[in-house]
């Protein structure tokens, strides 16, 4: 009897409680990591892309998620000259920048803002060029620096991109996450106040949501754009709740404290897919997990040795034990849905019985110990580097090859890679645009170093010529042919052994609709619609 | 009484100095100091800054670390307070029952449950409780101390009050939301506390039931309820409070562990996040605040005991 008042008060409190999933104008997105900044020009991690590209900004053009064609965004339309060296973009005249307590724009978007945004990346003397950028990374200006000779303002609403040579990838680059448009007026204000760094942390864009608050990297609040130029968003309050623990993220989805969770643990995927209350979205990301063979290492210079070692590695077991259902098997660096995918490129089969024989014939020195280097921290490429390395070690041990696993932190890892002190390296590659050049160039180009992606330390005039010619090639059929040739050659050389094509998983409540996942540019929450939670009966 | 107070304060001073030395050493080792001056003068500077309430600025949010730490610690105390209320309402009657029915079936049952409560690791129980709402179909929040949709500015640091201050914007929904968020973490903490309170109450009741004045009351012909209500309960409480005082640091430690599981924004979560992100200044600040609080509270409890319990008053005399 004494406990009755407690039970009554608990029941009363519980009855007053409304979970967040019942509030239809607020969306809670639970991510695993906090964004590095709020500018996808300088930060290319998935968390930054999710929080910024589609939420805060717009680009000149974008890729239609259904037709996969380039469609207008800030540029209403565009024209290309006959030589395909000049692209003229006509801008919309009704684009408003965000209006909030730290910035009140006095004008709408015009050509000055577009030029400012690209100049920041391209012009070394630009006052914002090195703001918040520790070192010039490959993506910061590389996609445009070799491509664009000049960007000219024709009038207030017309700009022209003058290319060095005809290049097929300009539109793809303009639709990529790093081509977002910032406000020049806001930048000038910050420059006057001597507070340049703020541009990437208190952002002003034109996207459907505007930045409100970022409290100690755990909670990021956005609100709907107060003067949107596009269709206003149904969601008035968007909250990014950073929950690093995957079990906790799933528990919060179950308790209604998250509407969408990203990256569920591989082991949870099966369980989630059985739950009728949630939808599981899986998208191929274009990211490939791979094993790089250091071709400068004495023992791995011979491609026969690389083939023999590769065919001793049981990739299916790695896929089952490490990735669960978060990845699909990879036979080629390109995913099979890519337009440049070559189905005839040579494949690697798991035939350990022949591996030892091949190595013996090739006079491989079995007394040496190969170094398998891997990062300590898990990454988007691999949820468990150590387990993968152990599986490879045990595979190679069965054919009599000794290995040691060396796990390193980022700083040590970079030094080790640059010094070339490794034989096998567990890594991966993330392309940022759909063009295959974006995948192949970092891996195979002579001008790309180990940190930029060429961990195979490969430099070959034939591959380099193929890469360069294909980039400039405007004939689509010829481009496909060139990439076919490149794949056949590089698969034959086997500098990288692909392990898995990674999938991106997002789980959301069934009362959410209109979610668009773009694995390259991040999640798009503009058209999200949220209705009161559905019961199991309603779902049935 | 005055002499006793002075004695306690003297003890407080000595312990506080030891504490500041520990906190200073930790800060010196983790954060480091580039000044050329010697360690002793750095320590003196540190003491001066403590006396001025300036413990430095957090590397995470550039806010004064003392303010952030105090707000977090008050949240922890709020959690402990609710757990204590829960535990007292359940634990004291059960403890009395076990004490009165000593060595009978009901005593064994209660003590078995209490023992299980003591034996279960608190973080494990907390993890199980985060799964409970989903398993039972009872809709309860498991993360934080208030839903993230409410923007509650910190005015007093006590969320219960702060959530009422925003009632113009959210009516009472923020307040209710906070209360619901407390239920699960406070229940987990209460499980440990209930076991402790049952154990202490039972022991205290047993001791008093054996005392001569209770036997005398029996011989006088008083009924059992009369004896219990008039004599036993009144005398059983001081030893319980005295024993619980010794458990304060354990309770706060458990609360901090529970906070991490429930992402409850208290001292535990604050310390965890700070250390994870390399803000080691939080370590020395937390030591100063938490240990300082335990010290002061134990002195207050001592004084309180002296005031409410005549048997404790003998400590007022220095030679006793």
Automatic annotation (TrEMBL), chain B:
Pfam families in the cross-refs: BPD_transp_1
ABC transmembrane type-1 domain residues: 73-305
Location in or out of the cell: Cell inner membrane; Cell membrane
PROSITE patterns: ABC_TM1
Transmembrane segments: 9-29, 70-98, 110-132, 179-200, 251-273, 285-308
InterPro entries associated with the record: MetI-like (IPR000515), MetI-like_sf (IPR035906)
Chief place where the protein resides: membrane
Membrane topology according to the record: Multi-pass membrane protein
Chloroplast is among the record's keywords: no
Gene3D superfamilies: MetI-like
Family: Belongs to the binding-protein-dependent transport system permease family. OppBC subfamily.
PANTHER family per UniProt: DIPEPTIDE TRANSPORT SYSTEM PERMEASE PROTEIN DPPB-RELATED (PTHR43163), PUTRESCINE EXPORT SYSTEM PERMEASE PROTEIN SAPB (PTHR43163:SF4)
Protein name: Antimicrobial peptide ABC transporter permease SapB
Organism: Psychromonas marina
Lineage: Bacteria, Pseudomonadati, Pseudomonadota, Gammaproteobacteria, Alteromonadales
Gene: sapB
């Amino acid at each position: 009897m004494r406990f009755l008042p407690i039970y009554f008060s608990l029941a009363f409190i519980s009855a007053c409680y409304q979970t967040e999933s019942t509030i239809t104008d607020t969306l809670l997105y639970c991510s695993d990591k906090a964004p590095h900044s709020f500018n996808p020009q300088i930060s290319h991690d998935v968390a930054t892309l999710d929080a910024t590209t589609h939420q805060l900004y717009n680009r000149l053009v974008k890729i239609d998620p259904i037709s996969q064609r380039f469609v207008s965004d800030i540029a209403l339309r565009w024209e290309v000259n006959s030589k395909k060296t000049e692209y003229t973009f006509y801008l919309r005249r009704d684009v408003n920048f965000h209006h909030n307590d730290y910035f009140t724009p006095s004008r709408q978007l015009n050509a000055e803002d577009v030029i400012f945004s690209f100049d920041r990346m391209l012009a070394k003397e630009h006052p914002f060029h090195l703001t918040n950028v520790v070192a010039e990374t490959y993506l910061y200006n590389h996609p445009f620096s070799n491509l664009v000779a000049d960007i000219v303002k024709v009038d207030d609403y017309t700009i022209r991109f003058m290319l060095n040579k005809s290049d097929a990838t300009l539109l793809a680059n303009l639709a990529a996450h790093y081509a977002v448009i910032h406000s020049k007026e806001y930048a000038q204000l910050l420059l006057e106040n001597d507070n340049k760094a703020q541009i990437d942390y208190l952002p002003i864009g034109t996207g459907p949501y505007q930045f409100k608050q970022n409290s100690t990297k755990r909670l990021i609040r956005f609100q709907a754009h107060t003067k949107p130029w596009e269709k206003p968003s149904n969601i008035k309050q968007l909250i990014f709740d950073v929950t690093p623990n995957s079990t906790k993220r799933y528990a919060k989805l179950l308790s209604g404290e998250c509407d969408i969770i990203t990256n569920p643990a591989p082991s949870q995927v099966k369980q989630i897919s059985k739950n009728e209350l949630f939808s599981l979205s899986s998208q191929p990301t274009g990211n490939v997990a791979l094993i790089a063979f250091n071709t400068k290492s004495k023992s791995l210079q011979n491609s026969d040795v690389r083939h023999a070692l590769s065919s001793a590695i049981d990739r299916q077991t790695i896929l089952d034990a490490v990735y669960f259902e978060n990845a699909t098997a990879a036979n080629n660096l390109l995913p099979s849905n890519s337009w440049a995918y070559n189905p005839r490129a040579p494949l690697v089969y798991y035939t350990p019985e022949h591996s030892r024989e091949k190595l013996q014939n090739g006079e491989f020195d079995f007394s040496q110990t190969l170094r398998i280097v891997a990062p300590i921290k898990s990454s988007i490429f691999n949820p468990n580097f150590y387990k993968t390395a152990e599986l490879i070690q045990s595979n190679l041990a069965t054919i009599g090859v000794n290995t040691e696993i060396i796990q390193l932190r980022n700083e040590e890892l970079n030094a080790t890679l640059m010094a070339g002190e490794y034989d096998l390296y567990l890594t991966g590659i993330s392309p940022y645009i759909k063009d295959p050049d974006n995948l192949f160039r970092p891996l195979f180009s002579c001008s790309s170093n180990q940190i930029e992606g060429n961990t195979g330390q490969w430099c070959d005039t034939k591959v380099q010529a193929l890469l360069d010619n294909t980039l400039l090639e405007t004939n689509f059929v010829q481009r496909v042919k060139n990439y076919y040739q490149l794949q056949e050659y590089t698969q034959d050389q086997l500098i990288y052994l692909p392990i898995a094509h990674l999938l991106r998983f997002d789980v959301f409540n069934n009362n959410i609709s209109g979610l668009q996942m773009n694995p390259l540019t991040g999640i798009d929450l503009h058209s999200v619609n949220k209705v009161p939670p559905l019961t199991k009966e309603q779902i049935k | 009484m005055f002499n006793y107070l002075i004695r306690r304060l003297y003890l407080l001073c000595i312990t506080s100095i030891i504490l500041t030395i520990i906190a200073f050493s930790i800060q010196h080792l983790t954060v480091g100091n580039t000044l050329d001056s010697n360690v002793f003068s750095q320590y003196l500077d540190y003491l001066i800054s403590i006396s001025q309430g300036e413990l430095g600025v957090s590397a995470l949010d550039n806010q004064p670390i003392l303010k952030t730490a105090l707000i977090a610690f008050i949240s922890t105390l709020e959690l402990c307070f609710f757990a204590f209320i829960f535990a007292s309402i359940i634990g004291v009657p059960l403890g009395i029952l076990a004490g009165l029915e000593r060595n009978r079936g009901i005593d064994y049952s209660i003590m078995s449950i209490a023992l299980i409560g003591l034996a279960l690791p608190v973080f494990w129980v907390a993890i199980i409780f985060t799964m409970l709402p989903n398993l039972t179909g009872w809709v309860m929040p498991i993360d934080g101390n208030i839903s993230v949709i409410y923007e509650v500015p910190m005015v007093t640091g006590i969320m219960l009050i702060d959530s009422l201050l925003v009632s113009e914007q959210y009516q009472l929904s923020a307040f209710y939301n906070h209360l619901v968020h407390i239920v699960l973490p406070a229940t987990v903490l209460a499980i440990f506390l209930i076991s402790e309170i049952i154990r202490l109450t039972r022991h205290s009741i047993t001791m008093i039931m054996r005392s001569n004045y209770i036997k005398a009351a029996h011989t006088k012909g008083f009924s059992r309820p009369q004896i219990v209500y008039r004599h036993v309960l009144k005398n059983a409480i001081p030893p319980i409070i005295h024993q619980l005082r010794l458990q304060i640091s354990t309770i706060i430690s458990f609360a901090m562990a529970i906070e991490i599981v429930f992402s409850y924004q208290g001292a535990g979560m604050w310390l965890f996040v700070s250390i994870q992100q390399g803000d080691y200044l939080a370590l020395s600040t937390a030591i100063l605040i938490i240990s300082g609080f335990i010290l002061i509270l134990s002195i207050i409890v001592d004084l309180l005991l002296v005031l409410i319990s005549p048997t404790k008053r003998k400590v007022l005399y220095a030679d006793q």
